[in-house]
Automatic annotation (TrEMBL):
<feature type="transmembrane region" description="Helical">
    <location>
        <begin position="46"/>
        <end position="63"/>
    </location>
</feature>
<keyword id="KW-1133">Transmembrane helix</keyword>
<feature type="transmembrane region" description="Helical">
    <location>
        <begin position="12"/>
        <end position="34"/>
    </location>
</feature>
<protein>
    <recommendedName>
        <fullName>VanZ-like domain-containing protein</fullName>
    </recommendedName>
</protein>
<dbReference type="Pfam" id="PF09997">
    <property type="entry name" value="DUF2238"/>
</dbReference>
<dbReference type="InterPro" id="IPR014509">
    <property type="entry name" value="YjdF-like"/>
</dbReference>
<keyword id="KW-0812">Transmembrane</keyword>
<keyword id="KW-0472">Membrane</keyword>
<feature type="transmembrane region" description="Helical">
    <location>
        <begin position="75"/>
        <end position="95"/>
    </location>
</feature>
<feature type="transmembrane region" description="Helical">
    <location>
        <begin position="115"/>
        <end position="133"/>
    </location>
</feature>
Length: 136
């Protein structure tokens, strides 16, 4: 990420970098190592909100760096960020489904789990979109 910031003039805020590190630590250390995914019904849902929120902000900052100041409409910014976050969340669920089918893993724990993950992804995306669009 730092390479692309210097090379391509992409500006990622320190807050987003911190959020990315937080999501990785929460997923790998807390969720995987300490097995909070298995012992807490709330951890996965909270991580979906935080993760989608972070990916939405990161994607917006990359696009804003590439497009410049062409994104002036609050409504357009809201739609763009929420669409990116929701799409990312859906792709993550498809990826988990693919892993389960190919490698016989149990990343998804049924239809209710998948639907709740999608709902919490939407919450994270909408939250990011709301915060950023109100700053414009």
């Amino acid at each position: 990420m730092i390479y692309f910031e210097r090379k391509e003039k992409i500006d990622i805020s320190n807050l987003v970098k911190l959020l990315i590190a937080l999501v990785l630590i929460l997923h790998l250390a807390i969720g995987q190592y300490f097995k909070l995914y298995e012992t807490s019904i709330y951890f996965d849902k909270i991580l979906h909100v935080i993760g989608t929120f972070t990916i939405s902000l990161f994607s917006y900052q990359v696009l804003r760096s590439l497009w410049g100041s062409d994104l002036n409409s609050k409504i357009l910014v809201f739609i763009l960020i929420s669409s990116i976050g929701i799409t990312t969340g859906v792709l993550l669920e498809i990826f988990e489904f693919s892993l389960d089918m190919i490698f016989n893993t149990t990343n998804q724990h049924g239809l209710l789990d998948t639907n709740l993950d999608l709902i919490f992804n939407i919450v994270g995306a909408i939250l990011a979109a709301f915060i950023v669009s109100n700053k414009h």
